[in-house]
Amino acid sequence: MATTFDRLILDPRRTDDSRRRPQSTRSPENEASQSPSLVLLVLLAAAGIIVYAAFLLNPANRGDWLPYALVILAETVLVAHALLAMWTVLSAGWNPRGFTFHHAQERLYDLAEIIRDGAEDEPWRWQMYLEDRAVTPDVFITTYGEDLETIRRTVSAALRIQGRHETWVLDDGRSDDVRDLAAELGARYVRRLSSGGAKAGNINHAMSLARGEYFAVFDADFVPKPAFLHETLPFFAGPDVAFVQTPQTYGNYDTVISRGAGYMQAVFYRYVQPGRNRFNAAFCVGTNVIYRRAAVDAIGGIYTDSKSEDVWTSLMLHERGWRTVYIPTTLAVGDTPETVEAYTKQQLRWATGGFEIMLTHNPLSRKRNLTMDQRIQYLVTATHYLTGIAPLLLLMVPPLEVYFDLSPMDLTITPLTWALYYAGFYVLQILLAFYTLGSFRWEVLLLASVSFPIYVRALVNAVLRREQAWHVTGRKGAYRSPFAFMQPQVLVFQFLLITTVVAAWKTHTSGVVTLALAWNATNTLILGGFIVTAWREGRRGRAEARSRQQALASRERAAADLADDAALLELERATDTAAPR
Amino acid sequence: MTWASRIRLLAGTFLVLVVAALATYHLNETRGRATSSSAQILAQTYAVGSPYAGLVADHLVDVGDEVEEGDPLFVIDSAGLTYDLAHGLVTDPPEFTSLDDQGRLVVLATGDGRVTQLTATRGTFVPTASTLATVQREDTLYVQGEYTLTAKEYARLPDGADVTITLPNESTLAGRVQRVDVTTVDGQAQAVVRITSDELVDGADNGLVTAGTPVVAQIALTNDGVVTTVAGKVRTYVESYVDGVLG
Q1: Strand, coil or helix: what is A190?
Q2: Which InterPro entries has this protein been placed in (chain B) (predicted)?
Q3: Rounded-to-integer distance, Cα A552 and Cα A544, Å
Q4: Cβ contacts of residue A307 below 8 Å, gap of 6+?
Q5: Lowest mean pLDDT among A62-76, A117-131, A407-421, B17-31
Q6: What value, to the nearest 5°, has the Cα angle with vertex A215 and ends A212 and A220?
Q7: Beta carbons of B5 and A484 less than 8 Å apart
Q8: DSSP E strand boundaries for A306-399
Q9: Which residues of chain A from 397 to 426 reach within 8 Å of chain B, CB to CB?
Q10: Helices H / strands E in chain B, number of each
Q11: Predicted complex ipTM
Q12: Beta strands at B72-77 and A214-219: parallel, antiparallel or unpaired
């Protein structure tokens, strides 16, 4: 395969060449979302949703008002979001790279200069030119108490990104080890006095020190690929581009939680974000992104009043009329949450950010300077996590039927007909997910249906405008039980388990098998699956903590032994010298 | 986990148990009742007729009037009776009728009750074997309820089961099952139950207790089982505890 350098030699300035030749205008990563099979599936799923919605809303099928209201509320949110998401997916087959991009990309380096400097094999030294002006972007790596090894990996990779750039380690963890590491690797190190504004504050502080026209941001655990600047910087040849976002790709699909969380994001990065691009509403996700400094300055820096600074910053930029670009090319590989704790905190942060927009910054309001496309997409962003609360409402429906004989639907149709309507929505959605992810990822379904306490908490926090306080103690790095973060799930599981037993008893004594029993048992199994996952994680965590402790203890013991020996030796020498001959 | 979160988890578990126990108790109570899909108050009536055709010379009662056995209801001027009497074909007037001083037929009430319908008024010509009025017999009000029961529920419907009758104004009356007629449709027992009650007094509760009033009748089914036993024990224990504290 030809390297960038080879191409520079062999085929310079393809876009300057007046001879016409066929050129593929679609990059390979967009082809999946343009597949005719996907389009057909999306259309089928849309038809299924309509049929299902008509079935639910048919007054003839209405049951008792309480469970019916719960079902209609939950399904309205789910159905509306499914339709909007599918619309977005259908818009995903559009390549944001135009002539400007390709033209700028080919004039990014000066071949003569590279040869003069003798930097053929050191692409990180190549000076980059945009519109024939030399540019030296900054690369910010934000750290906050991450593992030293993780930071080392990221900083080393960041230093080796192709094209001359400045690498900065922005350490909010105030660790001397990180400082020494940065010095050792040759990156700049910044530590600020306050830690106001969290990550956004950290970046804003660094912006006051760095002078580059563009700056990229990476979380400490996202290892950038060398081509990052090569693939993103040319977009800035368009004068209205505020940032270029690349996907979060994960390398740690090891646990049920990380697979669930990771694949959930995979659909978003592969299909939804490219679609949002078309609406000019792709939002920044905080890492693997490169900003135009002038754009961020124009909105007064990265937005600091929210934990979801990335989405808010994007919204501010869009309101100012900036264009944003998302490319679905993997240019950095990182970690998705592996533990219940990390997953809970991540989802809580994201959901609170979304609800904040919904409650305080209605994107449909006339005051917002947004296009219709952007209004729709930001409405989706703002209300997206309501779909996470919907399972809670649906979980409550079978117990209502078991205990109080309140049924949501008054069905005169056969169970088979009912199942067909139901399949119109759920089975087709699962099929669609199967197609987009390439396989059935039950972990995603599991996590999606048990995360409702997180989203309820986020909604409450957003309404009351308060910060989440976790009732956990223990020093950093010590073992913390996942159950401390999932008490609501445990309690709901207990309730559903008891309800299933009661429903079985009711079925046994009445001789009538109800759908409520089947549903409730399924829900119990799903929550039980999550409990088992957490229990395994807890067991693994305890074992790791124990072995760490043992290693620490044995090291201490060895040190103590050594000290004892030394003291003994000292004593012997003393007695030797003191002893009268 | 810290002790604080352990305690909160424990408190939460306790709450879940209490909620589930209350809900199960409620379910068991519901399970012990069969609620009518349709029920109404009905009464026995008798139709007042005339053995002779003739002209109603006078009606002595109106709708709603209380009558006792032997009370005169109608005076009928009947040519047929006059003829029969004149020729000695009959000597005494038929059962529950008498003759007034002008030899006209007086139709008497055959039982205590209340007039609910009057078809013949003064001046009406009545043929033989026609109904002049309908009288609702006194103290014969009952409730007829229709129930859809599963086979197992039908098995738990005992003779003389207690019934709670709820009137449209939410006041309740106590009754008991008198007779059950059952047919089976689609594996479900369609039971028509006749319920009697001493508290069904005509005109009580602002006149709501009367024939034709829609009511809800809940039958107490035999409800043995774990939950009933446990609930009973808990109730006994709490009662004895409360007695112990108070007494």
Answers
A1: strand
A2: MFP
A3: 12
A4: A198, A349, A352, A353
A5: A407-421
A6: 130
A7: yes
A8: 323-326, 332-334
A9: 399, 402-405
A10: 5, 16
A11: 0.78
A12: unpaired
CA-to-CA distance for B89 and B81, rounded, in angstroms?
Answer: 9
Interfacial A residues in 268-297 facing B (CB < 8 Å): none
Cβ atoms of A237 and A131 closer than 8 Å: yes
Instruction: Please state, in angstroms and as integers, the Cα–Cα distance from residue A574 to each residue in A1, A324, A444, A580, following that order.
Output: 72, 77, 70, 12
Measured over the CA atoms of residue A560, residue A562, residue A563 and residue A564, the dihedral's sign is: positive
Residues of A (24-53) whose Cβ lies below 8 Å from B: none
Q: Which of A28-37, A218-227, A314-323, A572-581 has the lowest mean pLDDT?
A: A572-581
Ordered strands of the B113-118 beta sheet: B45-49, B131-137, B113-118, B66-67
Residues facing B48 on adjacent strands: B133
Residue among A488, A448, A494 at smallest CA distance from A471: A488
Contact predicate A284/A243, CB 8 Å:
yes
Q: Under 8 Å CB-to-CB from A288, ≥6 apart: which residues?
A: A217, A218, A222, A224, A228, A245, A246, A247, A248, A331, A332, A334
**Angle between the N-to-C axes of helices A442-450 and A415-437, in degrees from 0 to 180, rounded to the nearest 10:** 110
Angle (CA) A426-A495-A445 rounded to 5° is 25
Q: Write the CA distances from A520 to A70, A399, A409, A486, A508, integer angstroms.
A: 16, 7, 16, 20, 16
Q: Which of B5, B153, B221, B226 to mutate to test the interface with A (most CBs of A within 10 A)?
A: B5
- Picking from B13, B17, B24, B156 by the largest number of A CB atoms within 10 A of its own CB, the best residue to mutate is B24
The residue assigned the tokens 């998705």 is: A336
Cα separation, A213 vs A144, in Å, equals 25
Question: Do B214 and B207 meet the contact criterion of CB atoms below 8 Å apart?
Answer: no
Residue A383 in this model has a pLDDT that exceeds 70:
yes
Cβ pair B17:A512 closer than 8 A: no
Q: How far apart are the first and last CA of chain B?
A: 45
- The answer on pLDDT for A244 being more than 70 is yes
Given a cut of 60, is residue A391 above it in pLDDT? yes
- Beta strand extents in A283-387 (DSSP E only): 289-292, 323-326, 332-334
Q: Band the pLDDT of A25: cuts 50, 70, 90.
A: very low
* CA of B169 vs chain A CAs: smallest distance (Å): 23
Give the 3-state secondary structure of residue B239: helix
Question: Using an 8 Å Cβ cutoff, are B31 and B55 in contact?
Answer: no
Q: How many helices (H) and strands (E) does chain A have?
A: 22, 12
Question: What is the mean pLDDT for each group of 10 consecutive residues in chain B (247 residues)?
Answer: 84 94 89 89 89 88 88 89 84 82 87 89 86 88 90 86 91 91 88 90 83 90 83 87 80
**Distances from the Cα of B103 to the Cαs of A488, A571, B59, B79, in angstroms?**
92, 150, 16, 10
Question: How many contacts (CB atoms, under 8 Å) link A and B?
Answer: 68
